[in-house]
Specification:
This protein is α/β, with parallel strands linked by helices. Helices cover about 40% and strands about 20% of the residues. The chain has two domains: about 5-120 and about 205-285, 3-Layer(aba) Sandwich (Rossmann fold), CATH 3.40.50.1000; about 125-200, Alpha-Beta Plaits. The longest helix is centred in the N-terminal third of the chain and has 17 residues, at about 20-35. Bound molecules: magnesium ion.
């Protein structure tokens, strides 16, 4: 059932050693199945580094106007269009600036439906939704301030940042001590100069996409991402195709200076930066 996309993958992989014009033509071929039957297809996108250029201050991130317009046009045509982000779902919607699509936020914990004002939580997280908040609110404020750890309240996820700390080593050491103190229902995740305390449930971008697709009835799904957490979606799409739950999937990796090599290795199609993603959106609009 997945023959078409497997063939496409082989073609695209081999095309990389040929000319870029050939590669571009073959990439277009991979999109044809989506363009021809949009009512059977889901289009899902990571935000930071995929739709929105990376900014020095995360609060400054925004999806450029043309990309917004393309997303809105796709939402009218395709069965399902959505964004999948590590940010809170409402924040993801603010940055993307498109109302009529679905937002999965907080690494899969939250789902914000079009038009909804509040996200819903994955059922697995319900009883643990405030576990991280309880733990962080019980921390000694002086201890946090001494280590220059800044708390970001992301609802079910609480993040401790030390990008701005004068003594980075001290701040990180304090974060490690806090992580070690976390109760069993809170799981530490380490990012770049950030400790995220998340509910201890096996929910990620991939499991959230699986839930979303299962309720959508689509036969094909395309996902675009640039970072390690997007690999969870790539792998889930592979599983769904192998299980026959999807006829096809297209995993699109975004090449950037900072991204992991796996995003290139595991992708069916690779595009260059947020501009390459925008070109792909134009092709999907047709
Ligand atoms: Mg990203």
């Amino acid at each position: 059932m997945c023959g078409h996309d497997r063939d496409t993958r082989a073609a695209v992989a081999s095309s990389r050693s040929v000319s870029s014009a050939d590669a571009a033509r073959r990439d277009l071929g991979a999109l044809a199945a989506y363009r021809e039957r949009p009512t059977d297809a889901a289009l899902l996108f990571d935000i930071d580094g995929t739709l929105a250029p990376i900014t020095t201050r995360p609060g400054d991130a925004a999806v450029p106007p043309e990309t917004r317009e393309l997303l809105a046009a796709l939402a009218e045509r395709y069965a399902l269009v959505g964004c999948v982000s590590g940010r809170q779902a409402a924040e993801a919607r603010r940055i993307a600036g498109v109302e009529g699509i679905v937002y999965i936020g907080n690494h899969g914990l939250e789902l914000l439906e079009p038009g909804a004002s509040e996200p819903t939580f994955d059922p697995a997280v319900a009883s643990l939704a405030d576990a991280a908040m309880r733990f962080v609110s019980g921390l000694d404020a002086e201890r946090l301030a001494d280590a220059a750890l800044a708390v970001e309240d992301k609802g079910p996820i609480q993040a401790l940042h030390w990008r701005g700390a004068a003594d980075q080593e001290r701040a990180e050491k304090a974060a490690r001590a806090i992580a070690a103190d976390a109760p069993a229902e809170v799981r530490p995740h380490w990012g770049r100069k950030v400790l995220e305390l998340r509910p201890a449930v096996d929910v990620d971008k991939g499991t959230a996409v699986r839930r979303l697709l299962a309720s959508s009835g689509v036969r094909r799904a395309l996902y675009v991402g640039d970072d390690r957490t997007d690999l969870d979606v790539f792998r889930i799409l592979t599983e769904l195709v192998e299980a026959g739950d999807l006829e096809g999937a297209l995993r699109v990796g975004v090449r950037s200076g900072e991204g992991p090599q796996e995003i290139i290795d595991e992708a069916d199609v690779v595009v260059d930066g947020t501009e390459g993603v925008r070109a792909l959106l134009r092709e999907l609009v047709g």
